[in-house]
Design a protein that fits this description.
The protein has 317 residues and is α/β, with parallel strands linked by helices. The protein contains eleven helices and eight strands. It binds uridine-5'-diphosphate and magnesium ion.
Length: 317
């Protein structure tokens, strides 16, 4: 029988873990595929660790990967994908915002031969108007600036076949990355399922505005090089302005014998310097990414793993 792997990233989720496990196993029992759940503890500092351990002790289908510290949500998802052994892999959050009842429809899509299934949010009750608007604006800008066309409102709720997982395990090992973007740009037979994000079961969001901003910038920089072209474009534009200004000055000088314009010089200098610094800043951001990649540090560090011996037995059977 085929197997579905659920990859669940956990960061300080002591309040929801038990509810999550109970709800999800109810759904999984009704599935036509076997299942395993890979919990990745992304350096939680609350009781998440002991809760997952006690769940894993009673149920060998629960695999546990514990990070040595917090590496971030995407790193946790990558580790989960690396350690999942199913024929299909579903990434989802631990807070039940990604409704478990869709697992069956995802498996149906796998059965139909789809290999990348993006879950598209139609509404996110928990997020509030501002987060919804900025999220949609973010995708518009990203689609405008990069060659890949991303599904608007795609979320961290997605499913991939083990073939796609194989690609992610060996390629796309970037430190500055946009995992959902990778998933959407690998190709293969793709489809989407619409869902409405539920309210968080308990606890509160770990994504601050600052983290989301950083996340968006990284996504843009890792999927688009067009910001680097701003320099060349503004260069041409400012050059043209300069030419017009030059002609204007010459005419004023010759025809009216006017004194050279002091304010014009100030305005031009301020404008040029502003553009220059912006462009240098953008180049700096890209260099920072190059620097991070060349250091070759790990995406995550595993401190502990539980129930993976079973995994070898599964393979033998
Ligand atoms: N998460 C994580 N590492 C982090 C932050 C969050 O693994 O550094 C997990 C978190 O436990 C949850 C998921 O990522 O399962 C989504 O986080 P959250 O619900 O806080 O984000 P939101 O749904 O508000 O975007
Ligand atoms: Mg959430």
């Amino acid at each position: 029988m085929k197997k579905i792997s659920l990859v669940v990233s956990v960061y300080n989720e002591e309040q929801v873990l038990q509810i999550f496990y109970d709800t999800i196993t109810e759904v999984l029992k009704t599935c036509i595929w076997n299942y395993e759940i890979v919990f990745v503890n992304d350096g939680s500092v609350d009781k998440s660790d002991s809760i997952i351990k006690s769940i894993a002790e009673q149920d060998s289908r629960i695999k546990y990967v514990k990070f040595s510290r917090n590496f971030g949500h995407e790193a946790a998802m990558i580790a989960g994908i690396d350690n999942a052994s199913g024929d299909g892999i579903i990434c989802m959050d631990a807070d039940l915002q990604h409704p478990p009842e869709y697992i069956n429809s995802i498996i149906e899509k796998f059965e139909e031969g789809y290999e990348v299934i993006s879950m598209v949010r139609t509404a996110n009750k928990d997020a509030g108007l501002l987060k919804n608007i900025t999220s949609s604006a973010f995708y518009k800008v990203l689609n405008f600036m990069s060659n890949v066309k991303f599904e608007e409102n795609a979320s961290d709720f997605f499913a991939i076949s083990n073939r796609v997982a194989g690609v992610l395990k060996t390629e796309y090992r970037e430190k500055v990355r946009f995992l959902r973007g990778f998933v959407q740009s690998v190709g293969f037979k793709k489809t989407t399922i619409e869902y409405e994000a539920a309210d968080r079961a308990a606890g509160s969001s770990h994504y601050s505005i600052k983290k989301l901003f950083k996340f968006s910038i990284n996504a843009l920089l890792s999927f688009s090089t067009s910001p680097l072209k701003i320099g060349a474009f503004t260069g041409c534009f400012v050059g043209l302005l300069g030419l017009i200004l030059m002609i204007y000055t010459i005419i004023m000088k010759v025809a009216y014998n006017a004194p050279s314009g002091y304010s014009t010089i100030i305005v031009v200098i301020c404008f040029m310097f502003a553009i220059l610094f912006i462009v240098v800043g953008i180049i700096g951001e890209y260099i920072a990414i190059l620097f991070q990649e060349t250091k070759g540090r790990p995406i995550y560090i595993v401190e502990d793993k539980i129930n993976f011996i079973e995994l070898e037995n599964d393979k033998v059977n």
